[in-house]
Amino acid sequence: MSVIFDNKKIFEYQIPVVVIGAGACGLCAALAVKEMGTEVIVLERDSTPLGTTAMSTGLIPGANTKLQKAAGIEDSVQLFTNDIIKKSKHQTDSDIAHTLASESALTIEWLIEKYDIPLSLVDSFLYPGHSVMRMHGTPNRTGSELMGSLCNAAEKAEIDILTNSLVTDLYSDEKNKVIGVKITREDGTSEDIGCDALILACCGFAGNPEMLKEFIPEIKDAVFFGHPGNKGDAIKWGKLLGADLADISSFQGHGGLAVGRGVPILWPMIMEGAFQVNNLGQRFSDESLGYSEQAVKVVAQPEKYAWNIFDQRLHDLMKEFEDYNNAIEANAIIRVEDLNELSSVINIDKEILEQTVRSVEKMVSGSLEDPFGRDFTGKEPLRAPYYTVKVTGALFHTQGGLVVDSSARVLNKERQKLPNLFAGGGSARGISGPSDWGYMAGNGLLTATTFGRLAGRSASEFLKKTINSDNI
Ligand SMILES: Cc1cc2nc3c(=O)[nH]c(=O)nc-3n(C[C@H](O)[C@H](O)[C@H](O)COP(=O)(O)OP(=O)(O)OC[C@H]3O[C@@H](n4cnc5c(N)ncnc54)[C@H](O)[C@@H]3O)c2cc1C
After folding, report:
1. CATH topology for 252-395?
2. Whether the Cβ atoms of residue 353 and residue 277 lie closer than 8 Å to each other
3. Whose CA is nearest to atom 51 of ligand 1?
């Protein structure tokens, strides 16, 4: 992966805007470019556009959306901004957080009304860190459905997505203006495409073990459950072009990947009263703080796993999510009649397990304080029959990257704009602060969809301005 400085390069094919990566960010960017009347092409390394987006639950947060209003939920841009900043412990860029929060409802409505993406409000669970219910998802709450709808929208808009096209190099002039890209096909042949603006939508470096070792050593031993094709190319190119990087150690982890099944057990179960024990039968954390930071905590337990303990009510509640139904089908979910059976099935000392379960019951009734600080009051106590699933900690995707302004334009260390480079999604610095604890549910697809839309719009506006000024 390099940047080739070549002023005199002549390209046989020239497209005004090139987008690298066909996940949520790349497709939203391309739709925004095209609707402004600018030609665009999307280059994707895989044979089918999937990315991390297709692996995800596909939930996108939006503040003050029409769907929230119809459900009687009062939200505001300021409330959402405050939630993002609070979760990041005030260690993110508050202007960017505000921009994303204020554009979030516009993105949701743009996707639904202009591109027929079938989003509805998730009104059954409050995700950690959010003051109100503001997650929007497709009918089965899957990223593959979201990707399918985005690909349909791109096809209808007559956007070309060139698959099996790994971008290996960029071409630039001496002022770090990108003038084109080199793609390599599966058969080893390569092709050059010229461009006037470039949008980097090829996510972060979760699929690159060397970069993980260098920037986020604490997660390198966790299971990787993200898109292996995301090798940090945007970050490498950006650096070579003089871009600034920030929060490079930031990532989205998950403390509930079903062991040996590769299915995430989503956090609504925890938020509604489930808890985790290690293989000694002991709780070890406030699970409700968030699933991202829970990954490292689970991996730190003996043999790197934990058991989610829950009951029939939570089992039924979770069936809204296709991931959970997949976990049932994969025989990951175990049902037991009582604590006796639970202790023998998961091979944990019965007395210790019973003590843990009874302690949580007291925390629910308010007669005992959780030593880890979790507030269980208001939840229903767990009742037999019990359910359990063995989980481990996983890395989903990285959240640090290229510093961008509120129009998704890449900036250098002096906070000046690079000539014609834009970025969003996992390629750009997110809004999760410098580590794992700042990731609030939805931060990934908020930055992918909204920065994608903003990057597309800004790239098109930038080209129109350039053409106008050239004509003066
Ligand atoms: C299990 C799971 C559940 C999740 N659930 C949610 C959720 O509900 N809500 C949420 O907000 N976030 C969620 N996330 C995070 C979210 O999926 C990501 O933040 C988001 O999908 C990133 O989008 P993207 O477009 O930046 O990257 P991607 O979707 O990964 O797309 C990047 C694309 O670039 C391509 N590419 C990479 N390098 C090159 C190259 N050199 N040349 C050509 N192509 C290249 C890749 O093949 C890929 O298709 C989840 C993640 C996981 C793993």
Report:
1. Flavocytochrome C3; Chain A, domain 1 (3.90.700)
2. yes
3. 56
Tell me the pLDDT band of 221, cut-offs 50, 70 and 90: confident
For residue 8, the model assigns a pLDDT of 86
Query: In this structure, are residues 393 and 387 in contact, taking their beta carbons and an 8 Å threshold?
Result: no
CA angle 127, 250, 170 (to 5 degrees): 120
Contact 233, 167 (CB under 8 A): yes
Q: How far is the CA of 359 from the centre of ligand 1 (A)?
A: 40
Per-residue pLDDT, averaged over 394-414, amounts to 97
Which DSSP symbol is given to 463? Answer: H
Best mutation site among 203, 208, 250 for ligand 1, i.e. most ligand atoms within 8 A of its Cβ?
Answer: 203
Look at residue 470 in the predicted model and tell me its pLDDT: 64
- How far apart, in Å, are the Cα atoms of 391 and each of 67, 254, 255, 256, 316? 34, 10, 7, 5, 19
CATH superfamily, with its number, for domain 2-247+399-471: FAD/NAD(P)-binding domain (3.50.50.60)
Q: Cβ atoms within 10 A of the Cβ of 181, count?
A: 25
**How many Å apart are CA 25 and CA 158, to the nearest integer?**
17
pLDDT of residue 422: 98
- Determine the distance separating the centroid of ligand 1 and the alpha carbon of 31, expressed in angstroms: 17
Looking at the chain, which residues constitute the CATH 3.90.700.10 domain(s)?
252-395
In the prediction, which pLDDT does 91 show? Answer: 96
Ligand 1 lined by 62 (C-beta under 6 Å): no
* Neighbour count for residue 137 (Cβ, 10 Å): 24
124: number of Cβ within 10 Å: 11
Position of tokens 């098109």? 460
Looking at residue 100, what is its pLDDT?
Answer: 98
**CB neighbour list of residue 434: distance below 8 Å, 6 or more residues apart:** 91, 247, 249, 250, 400
Q: In the chain, where does the domain assigned CATH 3.50.50.60 lie? A: 2-247+399-471
Residue with the smallest CA separation from ligand 1 atom 32 is 202
Residue 273 near residue 376 (C-beta atoms within 8 A): yes
**What does the pLDDT read at residue 472?**
53
What is the per-residue pLDDT for 241?
A: 97
Are 377 and 330 a contacting pair, CB within 8 Å?
Answer: no
**Pairing label, strands 2-5, 40-43:** unpaired
pLDDT tens per residue across span 222-238: 899 999 999 999 999 99
pLDDT tens sequence across 49-62: 999 999 999 999 99
Task: Give the pair of three-digit tokens for residue 342.
Answer: 């639970």
Name residue 370's amino acid. D
